[in-house]
Design goal:
4 copies of one chain form a homotetramer. Chain A has 11 helices and 16 strands. With about 350 residues, the first copy, chain A, is of the alpha/beta class. Chains A, B, C, D: It catalyses: N-acetyl-L-glutamate 5-semialdehyde + phosphate + NADP(+) = N-acetyl-L-glutamyl 5-phosphate + NADPH + H(+).
């Protein structure tokens, strides 16, 4: 069976990555691609790398254009999807790659985003430990899915096994992320100009202001934490894609190095898309470029009393579009890996 | 008065940066440049950017070649300088850019480096708070100086004001650094190949094994800490030079945001080469490229209970060769800024 | 039917890209991977991005290990494959990604490579115009195939339509290529260190010495040129992969701009993997990253009397491993596109 | 004597580089910095790397603000300086870094720029061969100077010795340039976003449309060419700064390899800022980063009948701001090298 697919916001980076992956998906057929100011242009004028889709033309982003598909992927700035998707049929599978439906707490929404809160949808991180199960249990059969924040899901997957097993403390987490500028979208801001990014490392949202912080806390609470505090600092570095998250948490009293390693290895032993490297190894973002894989290395630093988890993710793939498609596969009852790759494009 | 200068290890990155800066120094005259396997070659064959020094030829790295100069800068791998410099005259100013004479503790040396410990020299971080004074007091008149580890001095300068003033705790520090590959030297290792570094972020020495850890602890103890623990993770990113260090420490009980900011602003108010940015601003490594400047932003994250200090340094300049020359200026009684620049080369 | 596959030289960049593509190929099964000094190691220790192949272990590169497979891909340095492949069964499909079997002329071989010349195999550029047909006619049913030089095939595909149709002159061609360092292989040479490549453009083999020059001339002669001369300059730029070839040739007397454009558009109208952009557009290497696509823009510069063809290719994919697999598909009678993608990974 | 200096357009890349160099100039004192939309902001808010100038505030770009200085450097978009500078006193030294006063031919101006043509000023490439002399002869005592186009001056310096000595032909020149995105200015255009530049090579203005083409032809005519034609293609590559120009021209009948090399070596033997590398060597852009140096390698390719000249220049330094300051030094009778460096910042 083939599912018809529309992508709203097809001219941006998340939209482009959705289309790149969808073009390889054997069960999905892309029939509609929408944009705002670029409506009427050939898709390939905005996404010149999608040569197999050069027959597609961008149309307006309206409920009418999006109606009548089996699946609608939405890749719009936050605040733009809530109202739009309210018009879509309940039986349509809607996967929102924006932030509008990620947070359960209206208070968090107001504090970090502002504007109307449209409520939470099924959160698109299938491997996340949630109580005694996984988030994929929630996604099965869902018709409204919120793909995660790329930084948020990376940190959640990094720490959930330790939180759930009790071998780390969830207070006083420190995460520092090297991130590529595509995570900020195709937006014309001075600090995103090539000459400002090449040859330099550039931190932003320093000191507890990044919008993914409440999302991480929510994910870790689902994994079993009662209290979460996190110091979170992203640093833009000169690579187009990728997140390399270094997350540290205090070792819980009495937890041994072996118990710690076992917590992660057990948690992800059967996950094709979340893989734990052997002791002493750490990942690079190149290892997961274009792939739906989160690759992580675990080190126990007894001198500092902290576990260090280093996780590599492609922000556009596993961080956004890959997570969206993986979640859609689950929702529709397709094999979870359909249309997704494990191997990165390196070097 | 002009001082004659020899540079041992002139074919590597630290040696090249020393020579680039020395060529602009009005009081120093480069008379001898030495190398090991490249002895006999024109300097410019190894350092093609040093066009003003194309008259120089590399000679062997021997005590005989290095003797008779007013100043000897040593840029050799660790373990190579201890014996060599023992042969040099006591009145010669020797500045070692390697690790051999940085650590006071033989135990630390054995644990992190191994081999013979040659003892500590005057540590070349002039702005470092040491007790009631600064490290420049120790450097004045010194004839044996150890230039700092680039990562180590960056973290020391980042945190010393908070430690000295008591507004942060020195236990449970977490530092994550985005670093350029030139910090690893001109060494032919697979993970330093361009195709392995371009487009990717690559952590190393994860979990408490990096050699700069005891050096940081030593520096912070000098600044007033009684007990130091640090989780330290460097990540190689695709920029040739630069360190962007994100260091966080717990806010001391009762310290206010205003007190915290004041601690840093007061500490560096009169320092041309260590500058604190206004509240809300953070530095980029490009801002200090080629300069002798450490530029830092301070954020107080009350939700996580941590101060975040983000500091940008050029690992080869302020991190190594600039620190060496600044320290030499002090030792010789020259104005401290002689031959050094504050402004970076950006974009 | 599934074909068993061995890859000789699986630890290098070409070998890694072969395996990345083979892992997605529905008709091929990777059963043997060989290496030289890394024999005995897990494949994933050398190719950490190939997570789906973490069950494979590298074995020695010997005729015995390679025998008994349906297909053997060889990714060894030039001069290493001639003797090795002589031992393989005639019915085995052998695809050599090295230079040993690309040149028909022993004189050219001696002048540019030296050592024993093992003779030419079917050349793996299916879309290349050869007389009245295409090179794919030669590849059908072949059992010995030489994958092309990445720079060479890029320039051949760029200019063959003009040469074959007579709208450009084949003497006095000028090609300048921006290339990523992965084209030079995983070799420990100082000029390939990251710090030497980041932030800089670095030409090499300037002045007519590059080994791909006779290969280009051979290809253009097959396309119909009687006399070929080419000034060829590659420049390493800071991107891990990619070739952006700017090739110019004099407009043949009497050829109009319309005729010129038509020559290219007609030649590649039915080719999925060689695409000509509309007038006024030019490609970027990112558009073909990881893809088997050569993307080209054509401009007629009447003021200078030259046609300018700008072509983007991924040196490891369409330039090497993709061409090898595409050629193998043809040789075995499989659909030519099997296991290959048209769309690049951008941004 | 100290000259007072104003910089108009201080918030952009050319303005920033002017200020970086001026800050090190012992005879110049920066008293006024102007901007358009950023008027009123601290300079350092726009140029965070210029820490020694943090006392300066941007004011409006008006004739009133610029009047009364000994020197006015103008770094505005083309078309903006003609009218503005008409108001400045004749005795004020005005150096325009824009295009408004580079071209003598109103026809060329109309064809490539359009709008009012304000006429040509003394062209700021001191080392350019002009008839029997050098362009510095024209610059001595000048009070209106047009700094060159960065690409244009690079190609002019590359080929003038061959043209002037008659060893190459000036018709059918081909130049392909790898350039950093800072050459396009701090302008918010999609193709200049970091994610569009990182990891890719991106040609533009292909096919004879680039505005520097008539400027190159003008320069080579001054050097002695009667007829100039040039195929010119710039390619943006992922480095913030730098131009690596590969220029080829046909060898004149009868010219020997020795004569060709001698032409370049003789032409630049006494020039500190234009240096010719020994036979077999080629430059990298890193070798001249931040420096006022054009570094070139010459190869004679007899098989293709062409000379290949590869020249590295920092587009912001020697290509723009360095040329402006060097020219100002000459105009004012100061030593030509004052305030400028020969050595690049590498790696």
């Amino acid at each position: 069976m083939t599912f018809t697919v529309a992508v709203a916001g097809a001219s941006g980076y998340a939209g482009g990555e959705l289309l790149r992956l969808l073009a390889e998906h054997p069960e999905f057929e892309i029939t509609t691609v929408t944009a705002h100011s670029n409506s009427g242009a050939p898709l390939v004028a905005l996404q010149p790398h999608l040569r197999s889709l050069r027959h597609l033309t961008l149309v307006d982003t309206t409920p009418e254009r999006l109606s009548g598909h089996d699946i609608v992927f939405v890749a719009l700035p936050h605040g733009k999807s809530g109202e739009l998707t309210a018009h879509l049929d309940e039986e349509t599978l809607v996967v929102d790659c924006g932030a509008d439906h990620r947070l359960e707490s209206g208070t968090d929404w107001s504090a970090f985003y502002g504007g109307e809160h449209f409520g939470a949808w099924a959160y698109g991180v299938p491997e996340l430990i949630v109580g005694d199960g996984r988030q994929r249990d929630v996604l099965a059969g869902a018709r409204r899915i919120a793909a995660p924040g790329c930084n948020a899901s990376t940190v959640e997957l990094s720490l959930a096994p330790g939180v759930a097993s009790g071998v780390i403390e969830s207070t006083d987490i420190v995460s520092v992320l090297a991130v590529g500028p595509s995570g900020a979208g195709k937006s014309l801001k001075p600090h995103l100009l090539a000459a400002e990014v090449l040859g330099t490392a550039n931190p932003y949202a320093v000191g507890g202001t990044h919008r993914h912080i409440p999302e991480i806390a929510q994910g870790l609470r689902w994994a079993g934490a009662t209290d979460v505090s996190i110091s979170f600092t992203p640093v833009i570095v000169p690579m187009s894609r990728g997140i390399l998250a270094t997350s540290t948490a205090r070792i819980a009293p009495g937890a041994s190095a072996a118990q710690i390693r076992e917590a992660w290895e057990t948690a992800y032993a059967d996950e094709p898309f979340v893989q734990v490297l052997p002791d002493g190894q750490v990942p690079r973002t190149a290892d997961v470029l274009g792939a739906n894989t989160a690759l992580m290395g675990i080190a126990v630093d007894e001198a500092s009393g902290r576990v260090v988890v280093v996780t590599a993710v492609d922000n556009l793939a596993k961080g956004t579009a890959g997570a969206a498609i993986q979640s859609a596969n689950i929702a529709l009852g397709l094999p979870e890996q359909t249309g997704l790759t494990v191997n990165g494009v390196a070097p």
